[in-house]
Amino acid sequence: MKRAFCNGILSAAVVAACACARGQSNVYSLAIYSAGNSWADLCSLSVPFPPYQYKLTERSWYEDANGLTIMDLGRRNERAGFLRRLLEVQCGSNSFSIPLGPGGPKRAKEDVGPAGTAGSGDLAVLVTDCVTNRGGHAMATKTLAVSLAWVFYSRESADVIVVAGDQFAGVQRLLEQTCGAADSTIRSASSVGNGRSITYGPQQIGVMLNLTADSWETIVTVVGKRKP
Questions:
Q1: Total number of domains constituting the chain
Q2: Exposed/middle/buried for 34, CB within 10 Å: 0-12, 13-18, 19+?
């Protein structure tokens, strides 16, 4: 009786830190679980320039065939439901969410803005356009060509490029060729294992640019006001 009572409390209200496997891989991340949802911080920054606070958080949950969240602390939800994932982006006082993975969320559409634009080709061209359109410095034109497929999201406070898989090393080399070394004084406060991250500041390229990756996605975010 006591065990059942405790399990009920855990399922309904407790926010618990837990190590959870990402799919079938051996990569583990520290996540917060509550009411069927898990939150894992991929990148968390405090910087001495706008937006001052920057954070990427992955929210995931399982839905049944009716689109209802499965609130189950056990592993049964992986077999009985559909995995849904969102990337929550915080840029200072502005925040927005974008879907991750195929299908996107069903019951959280109110949390998601306009759909992204799928594209492919030389990622350097897209990143350069984002930087210059947000008021950044012109980047080098002779760079390492990195041909990838992506989904591009443009919001008021930032442009976000999402690439499937861990492409951190290749994109980092591209950025080093175009922008030089990242700012080594800016380090993410997110849990070790949740993601890798490097950041460029306005003194380097005129805007803030962050590269974050985990085993599922590589994310490039350019933060700044659009040119009028």
A1: 1
A2: middle
Taking the C-alpha atoms of residue 48 and residue 198, their distance in angstroms, rounded to an integer, is: 15
Asked whether residue 188 is assigned to any structural domain, the reply reads yes
Tell me the mean pLDDT in the region 24-33. Answer: 57
How far apart (Å, rounded) are the C-alpha atoms in residues 86 and 111?
Answer: 9
Tokens standing for 33? 């679980």
Q: Bigger pLDDT: 90 or 106?
A: 90
Q: Whole domain around residue 104: which residue ranges?
A: 14-223
Our CA dihedral for 85, 149, 50, 94, rounded to 10 degrees, sits at: -40
In a domain, 211, yes or no: yes
36 lies in a domain?
A: yes
Place of tokens 């294992």: 193
Burial class of residue 228 in the structure, from the number of CB atoms within 10 Å of its CB (0-12 exposed, 13-18 middle, 19+ buried): exposed
> Residue ranges of the alpha helices (H) in the chain?
2-12, 77-80, 123-133, 168-179, 202-205
Per the prediction, the chain carries an average pLDDT of 81
Task: Confirm if 165 and 226 have CB atoms less than 8 A apart.
Answer: no
Does the pLDDT at position 3 exceed 70? no
pLDDT of residue 34: 78
Token pair in block for residue 174: 């591209």
Q: Which amino acid is located at 178 in the chain?
A: T
pTM for the model: 0.81
What is the C-alpha R_g of the chain?
A: 19
**Does residue 152 sit within a domain?**
yes
What is residue 79's predicted lDDT score, i.e. its pLDDT?
60
